[in-house]
Design brief:
The structure holds 3 protein chains of 3 kinds.
Chain A (H helix, E strand, L loop, with lengths): L2 E3 L29 H9 L8 E5 L9 H10 L3 E6 L18 E6 L8 H14 L3 E7 L8 H9 L4 E6 L17 H17 L3 E4 L10 H9 L13 E2 L4 E3 L9 E3 L6 H19 L11 H4 L28 E2 L10
Parallel strand pairs in A: 1-2, 1-8, 2-3, 3-4, 4-5, 5-6, 6-7
Antiparallel strand pairs in A: 8-9, 9-10, 10-11
Chain B lengths: L2 H5 L4 E2 L3 E6 L2 E6 L5 E3 L2 H11 L4 H12 L3 H17 L3 E2 L3
Antiparallel strand pairs in B: 1-5, 2-3, 3-4
Helix pairs in contact in B: 2-3, 3-4
Chain C lengths: L2 E3 L28 H12 L7 E5 L9 H10 L3 E6 L6 H8 L4 E6 L8 H14 L3 E7 L7 H10 L4 E6 L16 H16 L4 E4 L10 H9 L13 E2 L5 E2 L18 H12 L15 H5 L9 H5 L15
Parallel strand pairs in C: 1-2, 1-8, 2-3, 3-4, 4-5, 5-6, 6-7
Antiparallel strand pairs in C: 8-9
Helix pairs in contact in C: 3-4
The chains are: A alpha/beta, B alpha+beta, C alpha/beta.
């Protein structure tokens, strides 16, 4: 699912955020998408049978023309999944969005303990307003942390019965955000499993976002999770984050790898292949996986597991070494010039 | 309408309602609203009798015989089922 | 992306065939005309954002005298093509030779060798020899155990694609064909895992046909299948079939359920949406008595959905089968 990076504005400042230091540079300054750019993105052909696009940021709810954007996506028969904290003050008229469907929200509930009373109130108001249109997302930052509060939210506010779980991933080459170290991956798997068991009892399904690896779980655990309908996937591919000037980066952990220009490709699929080729080069040189054992791992060799996030193993200087192999135009970011948030 | 006439009433399953028996229990779906209902043993038996076109009196007699209880003991369950099912539009009252 | 049924005739007579309700002798033999075929390709291409995948099937599509013409027409219209065939008919080797370089994926339904005549066996093997990696085998698990190593032999001998699509023989709505009963699932699941173990040593993985409820497998079996790179996944989310006379059905097992003419719909996605809306209310009935209580089925519609819809609807009362004008 490609993501439209609609705005860089965010009032949260989550410690694990990997969007705060992106492909930004002097030649590619941070800003929000113009509406004209959004229209252009939505015109790009997708070969996917059912077009779904993420709307990410920053905080998309702060985008001034969000209602118009959702409307436009609806006209183009694109199903919008809007990623939000749900905890910023709702702009006037945002409730009108309910009438603009179909689309839904993915509310990232992290660091809830650090929420101010006002932020908590905002979140609760958001969930009350949009309830059945909301699914939750949560990033495992500290494997010790109990995640059952997510199920309480689903139950109390009638949310969609699915939770998207991620693991906190680093921005390749930088030590700017909090992320889970490899040594704690099994602990993260156990925390996922614990949540899955409670979720199954509550008719809730949970699924893995990228970054999970097969060896976070035992085979019997994978079997149990699959048997309960949990969406287990251990394969990494370009997230396709599309930003200003229709430039696309592979994903936020690899946001400092060269971008490709969507204006130079016939379709999203071609752009995806170009980004994948660069990730493949990095994986070949610095991987293949995040553990030494990945080299001999049957699951990796068979394509059942990618071997984890490249952000954990690729050094900063490597990011500018790669070039897309499919006919492309590349915009060079400036990985040596970090922008602080 | 006399009490006798009421007891001879034959309800009909609504046209948009489908049902299936599995392991002795009835699942009913309202294909128009999408609502579905799982009936307990007694209600399942009552439903089967109603769907077979039996009158109220015939239903309470058949269910009473099946569970070896009197018709009077079946009556409260039967009335409760009929009331609920009419409200949920799963059955229609006879003209 | 519809399944276009070029003909309802078949050169085989599989006892488990879930197309029986729509094939001779239940109905008259019927071939799709070129005109209807072209109209259907136009119809498919009307919503080209859907990806332009077309499946050609039957009965046995290579019995149709215009099979090659139709395949070439679809390719000329930039359709991605998949052909479902037993490749055992008289003309199959000649067609395979003619189309061997075309970008067509062949899904070859095979039964145990003793079920084929010498000529049929010879035709099949000639085709597989020509098609190689473009051919994927598909095979149906019947109630009684049968040897399966011959599948591995075929793949190795003819260098076919290293995956086998496994079906659990599904019932038609009438339940007249040979099919698996619920009680058969545990032993069949065991045979699937056993077969997956043998296939793994040849780098062959299993994939699965639709309509198998996930509770047919235990969690341990699911874990092992994943470990063997034969991850189990099955759902009831059919690619719609279009009969030779242009009627759209959800799938062959449900051929007698609803069958409106394709011209009733502006496009394939509209037809698909219509069928899903019509079937959705019945899904909670499930195909087993556990389905209704199953938390899993309620969770995600992309997974189990309660197994085969023909099983779900069988025995259900007051099912809306559409009016007479609609019937196949």
């Amino acid at each position: 699912m490609p993501n439209i990076f609609i705005t860089d504005q965010c009032d949260r400042g989550c410690k694990f955020c990997f969007a705060k230091v992106g492909p930004w540079s002097e030649s590619y300054p941070r800003r929000a998408l113009t509406f004209a750019e959004l229209q252009e993105i939505l015109e790009v052909k997708s070969s996917q049978p059912k077009q779904v696009m993420g709307v990410v940021g920053g905080e998309p709810l702060s985008y001034p023309q969000l209602i118009e954007a959702v409307n436009l996506m609806r006209e183009k028969r694109i199903f919008a999944k809007i990623f939000t904290s749900g905890s910023c003050a709702l702009a006037d008229g945002l409730e009108k969005l309910k009438e603009q469907g179909p689309f839904n929200f993915i509310v990232n509930i992290d660091s809830i303990d650090s929420y101010t009373p006002e932020r908590r109130k905002n979140l609760e108001r958001f969930l009350r307003t949009f309830g059945p249109m909301v699914s939750l997302s949560c990033t495992i930052v500290d494997p010790e942390r109990d995640l059952s509060f997510l199920l309480d939210y689903i139950r109390d506010y009638g949310l969609m019965r699915y939770i998207r779980m991620g693991v906190a991933l680093p921005i390749a080459g930088l030590a700017e955000n909090e992320y889970i170290r490899r040594e704690r991956y099994r602990d993260a798997g156990l925390r996922f499993l614990e949540l899955a068991k409670k979720a199954a009892a509550d008719n809730v399904s949970i699924g893995c976002d990228c970054g999970f690896v097969a060896c976070m779980f035992e085979i019997s655990e994978i079997g149990w999770l699959m048997h309960k309908g949990m969406k287990m996937q251990f394969v990494c591919g370009p997230a396709m984050d599309i930003g200003p000037e229709l430039e696309v980066w592979h994903c936020f952990p690899l946001s400092r790898m060269p971008r490709v220009s969507l204006r130079k490709y016939k379709s999203l699929e071609e752009a995806r292949q170009a980004l994948q080729s660069m990730a493949d080069q990095l994986r070949e040189k610095y991987g293949p996986g995040i553990f030494t054992r990945c080299r001999e791992c049957r699951y990796r060799k068979r394509g059942q597991c990618s071997g984890g996030c490249l952000g954990l193993i690729v050094p900063e200087q490597a990011l500018s070494e790669v070039k897309p192999k499919i006919g492309s135009s590349v915009s060079q970011g400036d990985p040596s010039c970090p922008i602080s948030c | 309408m006399s009490v006798w006439e009421m007891k001879m009433k034959k309800y009909k399953v609504a046209s948009k309602v489908s049902w299936k028996e599995m392991d002795g229990l009835i699942i009913v779906v309202n294909t128009e609203s999408g609502a579905y209902y799982s009936l307990n043993k007694t209600a399942s038996e009552i439903w089967k009798q109603i769907a077979a076109g039996n009158s109220e009196q015939e239903v309470s007699k058949a269910v009473g015989e099946k569970y070896d209880v009197s018709e009077a003991e079946v009556q409260p369950d039967l009335e409760s089922c009929l009331k609920n099912w009419l409200e949920e539009k799963l059955i229609v009252a006879p003209d | 992306m519809p399944n276009l049924m070029l003909t309802n005739r078949c050169n085989f007579n599989c006892s488990y065939c879930f197309g029986q309700d729509q094939m001779p002798p239940a109905v008259s033999p019927l071939d799709m005309t070129r005109e209807t075929f072209v109209q259907l390709i136009d119809w498919t291409l009307r919503d080209s954002s859907n990806g332009i995948m077309v499946h050609l099937m039957g009965g046995e599509p290579t019995l149709h005298e215009d099979f090659v013409w139709m395949a070439k027409h679809a390719l000329e219209r930039k359709c991605e093509l998949k052909v479902f065939s037993n490749l055992a008919s008289k003309h199959a080797p000649e067609y395979a030779e003619e189309l061997k370089d075309a970008p067509i994926r062949w899904v070859v339904n095979v039964n145990p060798p003793e079920s084929r005549t010498k000529d049929q066996d010879s035709n099949l093997k000639k085709c597989l020899q020509v098609l190689g990696l473009k051919a994927t085998l598909t095979f149906n698990m019947v109630p009684e155990p049968v040897a399966q190593e011959w599948l591995i032999d075929l793949i190795c001998e003819h260098n076919l694609a290293r995956d086998i699509k496994v079906g659990f023989v599904l019932p038609t709505l009438s339940h007249k064909n040979e099919h698996l009963e619920k009680k058969d699932y545990p032993k069949v699941a065991h045979r699937v895992v056993d077969f997956a173990r043998r296939c793994e040593s040849f780098d062959i993985k299993l994939t699965y046909e639709c309509g198998v409820p996930w509770c047919a497998f235990t969690p341990e079996q699911m874990g092992e299948l994943w470990h063997l790179n034969s991850t189990f996944f099955s759902s009831c989310n059919s690619v719609l079939d279009v009969t030779p006379d242009g009627r759209v059905i959800y799938c062959l097992p449900l051929a007698t359920f609803r069958s409106p003419h394709f011209t009733k719909f502006q496009s394939y996605p509209e037809a698909k949406g219509w069928f899903e809306a019509v079937l959705m209310p019945y899904r909670p009935l499930g195909s087993t008595s556990q389905c209704f209580k199953c938390t899993f089925m309620k969770i995600t519609e992309s997974a189990c959905r309660g197994g085969c819809m023909a099983r779900v609807l069988h025995g259900a009362q007051n099912v809306g089968l559409g009016d007479e004008n609609e019937k196949v």
